[in-house]
Amino acid sequence: MPKSTTYAAKVQGADGRIPYTVADDAVWGDLYARQEPQIRQHMARPYLEGFDKITLPQTRVPQCIEVSAQLRRLTGWQVDPVPALIGFGRFFEMLANRSFPAASFIRSREDFDYIEEPDIFHELFGHTPLLTDVRFADFSQAIGETGTRCAPEDYSWLIRLYWFTVEFGLLREDGGIKALGSGLASSPEELAWSRSGQPEMRAFDIIDILRTPYRIDIPQPVYFVLEDPDQLFASAKRDLMADIHHAQALGLHAPKYPPKVA
Predict the structure, then answer these.
(1) 214 with 220: CB under 8 angstroms?
(2) Which is the catalytic residue, given 68, 186, 194, 235?
(3) Which of 94, 158, 176, 243 has a CA-to-CA distance to 142 between 20 and 30 Å?
(4) Is 108 annotated in the active site?
């Protein structure tokens, strides 16, 4: 996650609602209108089925209390607004308690196509569809529970399993490859990039994933492809701490991206 942000968190009122502006609602509406036809074409069925269940408003920023009411009914999850940046420790603790942290601000027009840090469009449009599916919701909880047992030096290893699946995973479907992750669903630029034939596509392999470094501020040069969602669900039943230690012993792969210029 980025170490700093130019965005400020929006604060809930006493009624649990955030006072989004007309301009905020307009950004949401334009993002929704641009992205919905793209997800219909390029996203995998598990995401699309969840998207249709969650029924997000099209022309205004959804309120977390509204979305939470639907998620609690479907999978026992809820969405809780947080500041723009939270640490891995708090992130894992929230997932372990079936609470998804949602950065409360929405991106500016200048960041319309691609934003480095997560915003409310990414959190709700990107993440909540899979959280309507108990299998994906349980996987996220398992990642969180493992994270609560990790030492801080292990956080960056574990988060790669989440990053390359829930955030930027791909799924083979009907003889082709569809996008699955929330970072793809919510990013006009990255969804198109993942379908361009230019990034490297690798078979899903937990140890390989744990050893693969990434940058958050560029479209991904490497994606991992699930042959079946059951591969992901089975990984939650593994001894992930043992997998992390195995990956650490082998060491990181050489990055597929250039170093970030300070």
Answers:
(1) yes
(2) 186
(3) 176
(4) no
Q: Return the axis-axis angle of helices 88-96 and 155-162, rounded to nearest 10°.
A: 50
Verify whether residue 246 is a known catalytic residue: no
C-beta of residue 213 within 8 angstroms of C-beta of residue 150: no
Domain boundaries, the chain: 22-250
Pairwise pLDDT comparison (113 vs 228), residue with the higher score: 228
Burial environment of residue 258 by CB neighbours within 10 A (0 to 12, 13 to 18, 19 or more): exposed
Distant-in-sequence, close-in-space partners of 122: CB < 8 Å, separation ≥ 6 = 103, 115, 182, 183, 186, 187
Q: At residue 90, what is the residue type?
A: R
Give the CATH number of domain 22-250. Answer: 1.10.800.10
- 42, 99, 104, 167: which is the annotated catalytic residue? 167
* Structure confidence by residue, pLDDT tens digits, 186-200: 998 999 999 899 999
Q: Which residues of 6-30 are buried (b: 16+ CB within 10 A; e: fewer)?
A: ebeebebeeeeebebeeebeebbee
Beta strand segments in 104-233, E: 170-173, 176-179, 200-203, 222-226
Overall average pLDDT of the 39-65 stretch: 97
Please tell me what DSSP assigns to residue 254. P
* CA torsion through residues 117, 127, 81, 122, sign: positive
Question: Is 122 an annotated catalytic residue?
Answer: yes
The pTM (predicted TM-score) of the whole model is 0.94
